[in-house]
Amino acid sequence: MKIKTIQCCLASLLIAPLMAASAADCTLQAEDYTTAFDTTAGNTGNVHRNDNVDIEATSDVGGGFNVAWTANGEWLAHNNVTFPTSGAYTIAYRVAAPAAGGQISADLNGGSIPLGTTLVPATGGWQNWTTVQRTINVNAGTYNLGTFVSSAGFNLNWIRIAGASCGTPAPGGWTLVWADEFNGTALDSAKWNIEVNGNGGGNNELQYYTARPENIRVSGGELVIEARKEAYMGKQYTSGRITTQNKASWQYGRMEARMKIPTGKGTWPAFWMLGNSISTIGWPASGEIDIMEHVNAEAFTHGTIHWSDQNNAYANYGGPSGSQDFSQYHVYAVEWDASAIRWYVDGNKFHEVNIAGGVNGTSEFHAPYFLLFNLAVGGNWPGSPDASTVFPNRMQVDYVRVYRR
Asked: Which of 108, 194, 209, 361 could share a disulfide with 143, CB 3.0–4.6 Å?
């Protein structure tokens, strides 16, 4: 884990209790690095990612995962950390170590700006967690943060910088108006509804959607929607579906989410939108914007709209993305205005539809829409799972954001 070896003076060390994250904090889950280096091949913990960094499930507050079994010279890089003003910031590390002697060096932009060194104390065990923190001085700007293991012997759960923000910066010309970073310990009921039903979603899906934590939870800085193979309420599978219906909706904007999605026969994760009018005029007259859908083991995702055209007939228009590595997180987005809807994966546009003036009966797409996330099992499109499908499988959402011009 590192950006570059740092030679710097030892800074003072503070031992602190678990800190509550505020809306102004940047919390970086250690295991959700942008790039990294590990001295040994393979993920010893065999969870969360399929590269060489060792990751295991954590017993720390909030659950999730931690980077484990650190070795000298390993490093992590987390991109796009924004410091809004020049001055002093507090950087904190959530660590566990059976013995003292661990040491973390920090830097910005590939080692070009050293931030000093923090000692890791003995905490009593590999899963006995404490927070260490120190003050750093940074000029205003957006940077890539490097975390370098100067001296090994500890686990790392998260990094938190008070007063900074993190993640993909707002695209040029856009202003953030709504978001959920999923940094708490429960789904925010002021933002989300949890649907509970087994009606098949109108697609003969096989799951029962529940509000149980087994199927929907916020853990480790992300939303987890988990599909399970189990008998429940007359169905053989359970999963989760959430919406912002009657709580938040938008006409036009950029809607994006960073997530990792499951694959396998009969899996159908989706990040999408429905028109508010669905409760009065129904579907497809309400319109539907599918920001991201994936089925089975396809190498790509889909972006699609559904509507009732000028002849009151059902219509749809969609297109596939390029190939993706689904062992990694990706940012899925639409940019929607009065002229067009455009689809992106990781900033690369792959599909566009003209809706100017309601052409081809697309007037549905000039009205407010709400957001949905769900992980369906089976249905008309993917078909049923088979013996190769791994359960439980999970849709993991790092954040969802809405921008307006």
From this structure: 108
